[in-house]
């Protein structure tokens, strides 16, 4: 059983639960976290634009099932398609930050 008594920060909790940065378990956690964030951003932007998944798919040349997969944080996303969905479909700019 894990000992949480000395945990003082969120980073310490993540490290205890998922390992150090660079480990396989931590990398998988980070990837899933980013997918979740993207999925939530897409859902919110689509709803704010008053578009259904089907309408967004038509507007961007994708399929409703692909939009659904992204919104449910499932599968892989091609960067070019993600940019097209946000910029063409939702009139939003995408920015990247590398840490």
Automatic annotation (TrEMBL):
GO molecular function, one term: DNA-binding transcription factor activity
Top-rank lineage group of the source organism: Bacteria
Positions of the HTH cro/C1-type domain: 42-85
CDD domains attached to this UniProt entry: HTH_XRE
Pfam families: HTH_3
InterPro entries documented for this protein: Cro/C1-type_HTH (IPR001387), Lambda_DNA-bd_dom_sf (IPR010982), TransReg_Diox_bact_type (IPR050807)
Residue stretches spanning the membrane: none
Gene Ontology cellular component annotations, sorted alphabetically: cytosol
PROSITE patterns documented for this protein: HTH_CROC1 (PS50943)
This protein's UniProt keywords: DNA-binding
UniProt-recorded name of the protein: XRE family transcriptional regulator
Organism expressing this protein natively: Flavobacterium seoulense
